[in-house]
Amino acid sequence: MPSLQQNSVSVKLDDRNVVDQAALQRNGYYTNFFSSIIEVSLPDPLVHTHLTSLSLALTWELPPGMQRTWMQPSISSMKVFIPLDRIPFVTELSLSMYFHPTFIGNKSERPSGHGYHPKNRSCALRKLCLRDCAYVVIWQLQEMVQSLKELGAWDALERFIVEDRTSVAPDRALEAVGSERLTFIGTST
Question: Rounded distance, CA 123 to CA 39, Å?
Answer without folding.
Answer: 16
